[in-house]
Structures are given as C-alpha cells and as structure tokens.
Amino acid sequence: MQVYQGKVWKYGDNINTDIISPPASLELSIKEAAKYAMMNVDPDFGKQAQPGDMFVAEHNLGSGSSRETSPLMLKELGIRAVIAKSFARIFYRNVINVGMLAIQCADTDKISKGDVISIDLNRQVIDNLTTKETYPISPIPAHILTLIEKGGLIPYVEYKMAGGK
Amino acid sequence: MGMTISEKILAKAAGLKSVKANDIIWAKADKAMLDDILGPKVVIDEYMRSHNSKIWDVDKVVVISDHYTPAANPTQAAVVKLARDWCTDFGVERYYELAGPCHQVMVEEGYALPGTFVLGTDSHTVTYGALGCFSTGVGSTEMLGILLTGETWIKVPETILYKWSGKLKEYCMAKDIILTSIGATGHDGATYMAMEFQGSAIKELSVDERLCITNMAVEAGAKNGIIEPDEKVKEYMDKIGVKDGYEFFASDKDAVYKQTFEFNADELEPVVSCPHEVDNVFKVRDVDKIHVDQVYIGSCTGGRISDLHAAAEVLKGKKVAKGTRLLVSPASKRIYNECLKDGTFDILADAGATILASTCGACLGVHSGAIADGESCVSTTNRNFLGRMGSKKSDVYLASPLTAAASAITGYVTDVRDL
To answer: What is the domain-level CATH number for residue B366?
Structure first.
C-alpha cells in the first residue's frame, strides 16, 4: 500500500458543498469551475492549490447538496486526499466514487494550514512532518481502497466486469 | 425483531425477506431522477457517448430541467439543451422543462410511489418519503452506475424516530415542525440515518405539508426521511390517477430505533432558521427586528398550493412593506395554473408580489432573485448556507410561508400573530 505526502489546506467545521463549489460556478465546466472552489471563504485556494496538496477540515465536511462538482473541482486542482473528523453522507460517497481518498481522522484540529503530512495506509496513521505528531485514521475497507486505486467507481466497475477482483 | 418502514422498503428493493440496520445490500431502483445541473452534464453524458452505453430501462428514468429554467444566460441554456438532447439521443421520453422543481414534478406526475426505491441526482430527493417511499440523493457518478445497471449498493440506515403529538396551531406550519426537529437533532445529528416522523400532529397534515417535512431530512444529514402512508396518501394517489404499482408499508411495533425525540405540536411556536446553518433555529419572537430586503415564497420546500394559499390569506388586502420585495415561485406549473384560476395570484399581486416562473433559480442564487452584499432574505426554501442565495455577504432566514408573508408586510422578521 502507498504512502501519500502533501501540503495542507486547512478548514474548520461545516464546510458545505455550497462553499466548496459555489452555485455560480455550477454552470461552468469542471476545469473552469475549479479556480472558484472555496472562493467565499478562501479565494487563494482555487488559484494556489498544487497537485498533491491535502484538503483537511473538521466536523461535517461536505454537508448539503449532492453536487459531485465539489469533489470533482478538488480533484481537478490535484488534491490528493480529503481528510476530516466526520463527513456528510453523499459527499463522502462522491469523493470515493470520483477516485479520491476520503480519510476519517479524529485529530484534524491538530493539523494546520501549510503543514506537510503523510498518509500511511499500511500503518493507518497520518504523520505530521511539520509538528512530528502522528494521528490514527479509521481503516479503509480493502474493496473501497481498490476502487479508489482504480480511479473511481466507473473504472472499478469496468475492471470488475473484465474479471478483476 | 421487527422492522422499520425504511427497512421493509429496502428489503423489497433488494429482493430479501428482511434486512436490518447496517446491512449493506444491493437494491434495484424503481425510478432514477436526473436534473439539469447535476444530471447528464456531470460525467454521465460524456461517458455514455464515448462508451456507446445504453440505459438499463428507459421507462424508469425521468429527467427534469429545473435549476436553469428559464435560463439566465447562454451557458445555463446550454446545460438545459444538453439534458434535452441527452434524453432524445438515449431514448428517455420522460423529460420535463419549465414544469417546476423536480421533486414536486416527481410527486405530481406519479413517479415517486409508496413502497418504492427512488434515487435522484439532487439531495432533496428525500422529499418522496412523505408518500412512504424510500428515496435519497446520489452523486452523478453513482447515477451513471444506476443508469447502466439499474442498481446500487446502500447501507441500511438506523432510524431516529420523531414523535409529534398534539395538533398544529393555526399560526404554525409543517415548516415549523421540521425546523424544530432539525434544531434538536443538529445539522449532522442524523448523518447516514433515516428520520421517521410519527404522531397525531403528522397524521393531521395534508400530503402537501408532509412533503415539506421529509424534503428537509437531508438538512440533518439523513439518508432519508419517511412518514407511514395512510388514507390521505391513498386519496392523493387516486387524485393524481395512480391506480397501482405501489404498496403501503408500516413500521412494526417492535421495530428498533436508534433514538427517539418527542415533541408536542400544541406548544410549538413559529420558528426561523438563522444564518448560516439550518440548525440555527430560534422562535421568531426571539429574533431581533432585522430588516428584510427580499421575501421568497417558493421551491420544493415551501411553494406548494397550501403554502401559497396560506401566504395569500395573510397578504389579502395588505401591502408589502416599502423597501421589501416579495417574490413568489409556485413549486410546479400545475400549481401555477391552479393559482391563476383560483384567484391566489390576484391576491398576491395586489399585495405587491412579483410572480415568477416555477423554478429552483433563487433558492440557490443562480437566477430569478439573487441577493446582494448586505441584503437579507426570509425564504421558505431549505438552505441558508453562506452565499446560498447570492452574495457571500448576504443573510438567509428560513421560515414558513406564514412567517414569510407576515415579514413581507412589516419589512422585518415577523411572527404572524404579531401583525
């Protein structure tokens, strides 16, 4: 299993899908819309996020709309993983279905903007390389991990239909 | 061990004798609903064209363009055109445009039926629970999987029971019941769970009013909201001309609930959900005298015929306050036509209201009533998130149509009893 390392964008509780993908951005293509992600609370995010960065929030991440544009915009910006203390239901499924890591971690309040963290799925921990702390994460079931590694629900279904396990 | 109504419907959809909370099952969709904004446009159209895909059963697919109708600009118009063309090219005959917000159309047209399992690309798909249907929102990729295979996996939710005894007073509405329930639960208190509503106050409500309650279950994080169907639902089915294809389920006496909340409707007072979270609920009388720039009465939450009649009753012979604008958008074209004929629009227009098309537009600030920096809106819709109806520096107060109408007359957030 892999280890993913990246720089943190950090937010608090109740970052809903209207905040991640503002309504006015919905009519655009994902490529165009991505630069408006999080615009109402952090205009820098959409312009400065780099491939490999980590999106970290606290409670109830992704509440509200079923809009898959939220994880798709984060994916377009190259966000590697979405990490939170708790997730809203549809957003959690959407993140996984588009092929991104959704990580549940009770200690995200200890992670700050700009920290470099490393997700180790083998040890089921996040190592904070900036603060030298280590936080446990909830285990990800093997089939969900395979689904994410294949690139999301659709590539996974195609892989299964072709006889993969 | 007994089963809840949600468990019974999911067992049927999965072809199983019984299921229990936390089982993971594969269930067959009775209907799949796609809207314009998150339907074919996101992932689905591109994938299906490039893979020469076929829909598993075109008779079970309904597409409703409602968020961008009427379109505000060429980009929105292109999204609607994409949905329309997709239906033509993939053989979907059940396509609607300018018919109103999708959830009201699904109910009125008889696509969301008691005892069935329905999935939609909009989070408020939970609405159909008022008819005893198990319905929930999914993302576009998940919908693509459903369109190709007709099924999806789902974890059977635990259920939270909301018992509402007593009877609603004439100054309260179903909106006050659901906002109070969400206030007690918290905006993530029902995440992954079912919210089941029971009790004399719920039984008394019309189907219209019940739809307002289940519509907002997702605002507490729930997977679905549900109410046991009864003779009122049967009458509703008869009224819309649906004779078969549905089944009534009820929770067993020994069904297992995760938690139970008890409320008495006799004691309920009009409430309002203050910015910027739906669970930020206060009695209207406890809210400061906040100036209101816009009042919006409409949407799949608060734009049904009973909502517009309630608002008209309050506004009859009155005028909207100077400095406040009142926008009304009926929840469907059918309701629009009914209001045209029964005089409701005359009353509202005489009071100073502007009547809009039946659309989702203002609810999510994409057209027909977005609000500016520093403006406040009292709205009968379902979300008051930061920037939801327009500027990130605006405020949205969620309330019942009665409270909204009273606030339009005074120009500030007002309890209808205080007019």
So the answer is: 3.30.499.10
